[in-house]
Write a structure and sequence with these properties.
Elements lengths: L1 H18 L13 H16 L3 H24 L7 H5 L1 H9 L2 H8 L4 H8 L8 H24 L6
Helix pairs in contact: 1-2, 3-6, 3-7, 5-8
């Protein structure tokens, strides 16, 4: 309940800054992955309860203000320093692919701003050339391990 109150009091801008995907300093709250992931999931849940038009307004605003920074942060994520990620090589590999910034990109994939960004040749959208390549490389890097893990019987997990 405390997190929900925090989200309602802080609003979207503070949440995005707290996620550090879009803040002015890369080291703000670096490594606090569990808290970041929890806040992001809570915000997604809260946002999903809004009317569809309101959701589109929110995602459009995020894209208009922060899309280049969001893509840049996905392309160059910092090293997570939470204990579970730091100690587990598989978790570190997964984090390179499935991190809060990719979750945000997934949430805005339907937005026209993302399509325009991906087609743009302007310097502000320089990350668009690398986005699909990096995503594909990271996915192919973990695909063999994920395939093995999927095939394991449930008792082996």
């Amino acid at each position: 309940m405390c997190w929900i109150v925090f989200l309602n009091l802080c609003g979207l801008k503070t949440l995005l800054y707290y996620l550090s995907a879009l803040g002015p300093r890369k080291d703000v709250l670096q490594g606090d992955e569990l808290v970041r992931k929890t806040m992001l999931e809570l915000y997604f849940d809260r946002n999903s309860k809004e009317h569809e038009i309101q959701q589109d307004l929110i995602w459009s605003r995020i894209c208009a203000l922060y899309l280049p920074a969001l893509v840049d942060r996905f392309l160059d994520p910092w090293t997570a320093t939470d204990g579970y990620i730091e100690k587990d090589a598989s978790a570190r590999e997964d984090y390179q692919l499935f991190n809060p910034w990719l979750r945000m990109l997934v949430m805005v994939q339907h937005n026209p701003y993302l399509g325009k960004y991906l087609r743009s040749r302007k310097p502000v959208s320089s990350g668009n050339q690398d986005l699909t390549r990096v995503l594909g490389q990271r996915l192919s890097h973990v695909a063999a391990r994920w395939d093995r893990e999927i095939r394991k019987p449930a008792s082996d997990h």
